[in-house]
Amino acid sequence: MKINVRNALVADVKPIVRILSQHGQINKFEMGNPPMAEDRIRGLLRDVLEAPNQGIQVAVISSGLVVGYLHWLVVPTFSLPHHEIYINQLFVTTDHLNQGAATGLLQSVKQQAIQKNASRIRIEICDQPGAHEFIQNRGFQGISGTSYQQALD
Q: What is the pLDDT of residues 7-58, one digit of tens each?
């Protein structure tokens, strides 16, 4: 399956809410009120898209369906020669796991990190089956527990 990765648009709010809901990331009150969740996420999405030091990429299949997204931030750090890119969230729909969406999103954020002259990419992963192996197989080294990093040369 062909996966394209692009910058998110405000119009991507519904699929992002759908993906967050699948992964239990929408609070109980909003689960019963999808327009409320969409309004909150739309506001956050606008804020991120206007911010110079963060971004959201989405993974899209050929039908135009958004099947994954990744939110990243530039984080200044005193312990590195340059800042780092921190991956705040990376989610893929359960129907599209193991089809290249997460890999494409990680490749996209690596390109962003290189363009922004970052020293490394860091991510905290959830403790789900296969998550540790997945991130390690993409060149990330364990720091501690669920924290991983990838140095950029």
A: 999 999 999 988 988 887 776 556 556 677 788 889 999 999 999 899 999 9
**How many CB atoms within 10 Å of residue 6?**
12
Instruction: Decide: 77 and 38 in contact? Cβ < 8 Å.
Output: no
Residue of 113, 128, 127, 124 lying closest to 148 (CA atoms): 124
Q: What is the pLDDT of residues 79-88, one digit of tens each?
A: 777 889 999 9
Radius of gyration of the chain (CA): 15
> Distance (Å, rounded) from C-alpha 64 to C-alpha 54?
24
**The listed CATH number (3.40.250.10, 3.40.50.10800, 3.40.630.30, 3.30.70.100) that belongs to domain 3-151:** 3.40.630.30
Contacts for 36 with CB less than 8 Å, ≥ 6 apart: 29, 30
CA distances from 97 to 67, 83, 93, 103 (A): 9, 31, 7, 10
